[in-house]
Design a protein that fits this description.
The structure holds two protein chains of two kinds. By secondary structure, chain A is mostly helical. Helix content of chain A is about 70%, strand content about 0%. In chain A, helix 2 packs across helix 13 and helix 3 packs across helix 10. In chain B, helix 2 packs parallel to helix 4. Classes of the chains: A mainly alpha, B alpha+beta.
Chain lengths: ~280, ~350
């Protein structure tokens, strides 16, 4: 709809600005809170202007952590989160792109069955299968390890499905031209399919990185050793200080820090991400 | 360079559907053979069987002296040009041309030499570093041909390569393909549904219908002596008029008009009395001004002006007929036409086979 009515324009902008404010205000509060001394919150009024404790708060969270809440330094946890998010994102992409390749381009017995089996698992999120998965991971001795944090979350029906759709849009004639040009299956995969799904891989990477970074329940369940704590799962631990008032300034500093990497990934990969979501030309 | 031999080639799909049956053709070294037919006649399937993209269920295909039924497309020493060009969208023109050679382990300086040579022939040197999406349809078409040329294959296979181009470009590319093929002298197999393309490009053409060969011959043979009513109606534009007629011992009669049999060079077997189909090309009908007895009487319905000629649509003995007249020819509501007996085509009414 392309219409130019001044009052409608203003209304639309008003709605947009309100939407942005609603989303941005809590983030602003968190950012402001992380710059104050702990005493600023005892009065019960949340300050709206920046304080002067920013460097101290962040330095403390990154360097020493919050011992009263049993939280190790954030730098270590952020490193764990980074490993977890990266391994999950890359692992999911590698596994799903190869399985989609197999399903689309090879004729093997029970191909349809394999596809539907993958499809059915779409309906089973981690939370549903969490008890049996925990049992398996525990029996394999993977509690408190990077492998335990990542491997159970890697298998992905959604990504397989997405790559299948991408491959189906690639014209058959391109496959045939490659066959005549002497490209075997793996060469075709590497030289033609991978470059053509580049933008989709980028878009998927952004989504999966955030998915991996934001994991809460699973890391909470299987990590008991502080060495393997992840940031998002630990925020709750920070807030439930026993026998004392939560140090909101520090908790908020942790929240802001936990938010940064996903934001960075989105900003840095935004161009590819949008291209991957909207581009149809093959 | 090589001859291609198809011997009793057929394709039956697992479900029992028959796409092609019992096709035998020998394509000579350096020959330009065109497969032509309506959509669904099996021409593309046949080409794809030669290319190795489709399995062969009956018969054998040989390229050179080698039976290639079980050989991978890449090892058949052929190159194919696709209808939608099938260029790799993420590679530059140069990479597109070089990809097949690279896969075969051709030395790098040899690749460069061949790509530059092909680019020079096709005049695409200026955009070797562009991606296909930055090229026009005609330029993409050239790149697709360049990809075939750099392989220096034993045979080119063309799968309706011009049908995505506009009419004008199609005409000029047609000429270029023809010249290029003559210059390189590479055996070529070309599939099209456009009879004009088939006529102008082919050394010999093969008319296919429902998976079978209707006729094989040079364009002029096929045009002048169509073997069946199908070929007669398919080749030539506007299409040949096919009119039901009666034959007795001496004459072929259409309405009041009659043609004596000796003039028609009837074969012995075709002489039996009965109903037949008479074929006359629109340009073989000429108006007469003299006595009207024994002439074809045309009731004119409407006239199409094509500039160079006038197409007169009408009915002879109740059957629709098109007649092509030179510009300036007078058209009346009722016209009398004559046709040279040597320009008449007689077909069996049931089988559609040619009788004279």
């Amino acid at each position: 709809m392309v219409e130019d009515r001044p009052w409608l324009n203003r209304l639309v902008h008003l709605v947009l600005i309100m939407g942005v404010l609603i989303v941005a205000f809590p983030v602003y509060i968190a950012l402001i809170a992380s710059t104050h001394a702990p005493t600023a919150f005892t009065s019960g009024v949340i300050p709206l202007m920046p304080g002067d404790q920013m460097w101290q708060n962040y330095a403390q969270m990154l360097g020493t952590g919050l011992s009263t809440a049993g939280a190790p330094p954030l730098s270590g946890m952020m490193f764990n989160s980074l490993i977890m998010a990266l391994v999950i994102a890359i692992g999911k992409i590698v596994i799903s792109i190869t399985s989609a390749f197999a399903i689309v381009y090879f004729r093997f017995p029970f191909r349809q069955l394999a596809f539907w089996a993958i499809f059915v698992t779409l309906m089973l999120p981690v939370e549903v299968r969490i008890v049996p998965t925990f049992k398996v991971v525990a029996d394999l001795g993977m509690l408190n390890s990077y492998a335990g944090l990542t491997i159970p979350l890697i298998a992905s029906a959604t990504a397989t499905f997405l790559f299948r759709q991408v491959f189906l849009t690639i014209p058959d004639e391109l496959t045939e031209a490659a066959r005549i040009d002497g490209a075997g299956p793996m060469k075709f995969f590497r030289d033609i399919l991978l470059p053509l799904s580049q933008t989709n891989i980028a878009a998927l990477f952004v989504i999966l990185f955030i998915y991996g970074w934001n994991q809460y329940l699973w890391p909470l369940l299987i990590t008991t050793d502080a060495k393997y704590y992840t940031v998002v799962a630990s925020i709750k631990r920070l807030a439930e200080a026993v026998d004392s008032v939560p140090q909101w300034n520090l908790v908020m500093a942790a929240v802001i820090l936990a938010m940064l990497p996903p934001v960075l990934v989105v900003i840095l990969m935004q161009r590819l991400f949008v291209k991957g979501l909207v581009e149809t030309e093959k | 360079m090589a001859q291609i031999t198809l011997d009793g080639v057929g394709k039956t799909y697992p479900g029992g559907g028959m796409a092609v049956s019992d096709v035998s053709i020998a394509i000579a070294d350096g020959e330009f053979l065109v497969l032509v037919g309506p959509s669904g006649c099996g021409k593309s399937t046949l080409l794809r069987m030669v290319a190795g993209l489709e399995t062969i269920t009956e018969g054998t295909v040989s390229i050179g002296d080698r039976v290639v039924n079980k050989i991978e497309p890449a090892d058949r020493d052929i190159a194919m040009v696709f209808q939608n060009y099938a260029l790799y969208p993420h590679m530059t023109v140069r990479q597109n041309l070089a990809y097949g050679l690279k896969n075969r382990g051709t030395p790098r300086d040899e690749i460069t030499r061949r790509v530059d040579a092909a680019a020079a022939i096709l005049e695409i040197g200026a955009f070797l570093d562009r991606k296909p999406r930055a090229l026009s349809g005609g330029q993409r078409q050239r790149v697709a041909m360049g990809r075939a040329i750099v392989r220096e294959p034993a045979a080119f296979l063309f799968d309706e390569p011009l049908s995505n181009l506009d009419a004008k470009l199609r005409q000029s590319m047609r000429g270029e393909i023809r010249l290029l093929q003559k210059r390189l002298g590479t055996t070529s197999l070309y599939v099209t549904h456009d009879q004009l393309e088939a006529m102008t490009l082919a050394d010999r053409l093969v008319v296919l219908n429902a998976g079978r060969i209707e006729q094989v011959g040079t364009p002029m043979q096929v045009y002048r002596h169509p073997a069946t009513t199908f070929v007669a109606a398919f080749i030539g534009s506007p299409a040949m008029n096919l009119i039901p007629a009666q034959m007795d011992g001496e004459f072929v009669r259409v309405g009041d008009a009659r043609f004596s049999l000796p003039d028609l060079m009837m074969t012995e077997a075709g002489g039996a009395p009965g109903d037949i189909t008479l074929g006359i090309r629109p340009e073989d009908l000429h108006p007469v001004s003299g006595p009207k007895t024994g002439k074809l009487s045309l009731a004119v319905v409407y006239v199409e002006e094509l500039g160079a000629q006038r197409l007169v649509h009408g009915r002879i003995a109740g059957h629709p007929v098109v007649c092509s007249l030179p510009i300036g020819a007078e058209v009346h509501e009722q016209m009398f036409l004559r046709a040279d007996p040597t320009a008449l085509h007689l077909f069996d009414e049931k089988s559609g086979r040619r009788l004279n």
